[in-house]
Fold this protein.
Amino acid sequence: MIRRHPDFVWGLASLGLAVVVWEIAGRLVGDLLFAPPSTVVPILISLLMDGRILVDLAATVGQMLAGFALACVVGFPLGVLMARVKWIDMLVHPWISMLVVTSMAALAPIAILLLGTGFMLRLFIVFAGSVGYIVLIAFDGARSVSREYVDVARSFQLRGPALYRRVLLPALFPYAMTAARLGVTHALRAMIMAEMFVITGFGGMIYRAGLEISTAYLISHLILLMAVSGVLTWAVRRTGERLAPWYALKYGGA
Amino acid sequence: MARIAGIGARSGHGVLYVSSFVAGLVVWHLISRMLPGVTFASPLDVFAAMSDRVADGTLPRAFASSLMHFGVGLAISAMIAIPVGLLIGRNDIARRLLNPIINALFAIPSVAFVPFIVIWFGLFFEARVAVVVIMTVFDMIITIAAGARAIDPGVLGAARAFGVRGTRMLSAIYLPASLPFVLTALRVGVVRATNAMITAELFLAAVNLGKMMQSASSNFDIATMMGVVFLVSLFGLAMQQLVGLLEGRLVGWARQAS
């Protein structure tokens, strides 16, 4: 009975359940505390028609992607290097572990004093908030690359940069994709936090929406954020499938 | 023999950690010497600022109060996440209905819920607890659901074949089988909750450590701010290691089996 229905039917059922529960809860407590979908949807549509919110959202995502790209470019090679060179791992690993548990909200006030409240602050927070995860996944990946691959490559006289380019990097591709997917989620978290902290961009709009009488504005913003998060994760996965379809086949689209 | 080798490796790790720690501090110190001293603090400045705060008792008191909403929030998160996670993991209909909702909510950066929390719970203790719960509970639910789904069906089948059922099934089979991933969720949870603990104090009314950071910020006292961040991170790391140690003690068998 359960398996007979395809996934999207269950998805619809889930969405329906959520909307019904939300509508009932919203009617019970009122717009002031929790606006029901019947109030939120018209407001969400009017916000989208107005279009300014999308401009802000695009700017936020663009700046976030800059920090995220930097984190990938620095983090991934660092993780691979840590897995291959013992003393680098010894030096860096404990600090990366520490960075991963560090609250970006707590770093924000320091970063504001050092970098101001502009783009550099957001770049730094997004970078710091996502680079640790990318390093750790790259590290795990590079450590688990089959010893045989490296041995075969060695016996064919492949070493130095060629070993990285021809053997290690292709073998690490699935890990790079996992790192990117996890990294982008954390980059978005860090970005929204940074923007809410200095009340600017889309994060600032969330903060201001929270001051409205009706929570419909706030919920509309959260729904948009949910959509952005979904699109980003989807885009990373899609890029991976485009670049290396054989891995998607091998790992079942993961 | 293997046990002895294991201990040797662990103390080796300890030496590595210490040397990495020292090396990091030296690099930090050198960087702080190169940057203008007014804005960036060296580890020595941070240590001096922190020992002042410990000596006058403000830091231990602030930390202890911060731990209140950390603890309460973490406990509430566990009380929500364990039943919900087990339900999603073990019941097919619940999983298909609830999983998309959980994933959609999880996709929203949790700090974006803070305005909601302010509307519902205000700015003080209840609100801080709510921030901890919101930031912690989804990670824990997802971890527990994944673990519960992966309980070895062979074990359940064997138990059934031996006629185990009812409450005995729960206490003898499900409970021990769940302990490994509940502890994993707790390990994930303590880190998130530490994070949330300080986030709440900075985003809501500034109290305890958040207040300490705020007043340090208005005095351009970077040393104190860095000290607080450093301490909170160390606390998070220590809690993570502690739960990890507990995992090794209690459910080391699960790791060996897998």
Summary: The CA atoms of residues 159 and 173 of chain B lie 7 Å apart. The mean pLDDT of chain B is 88.
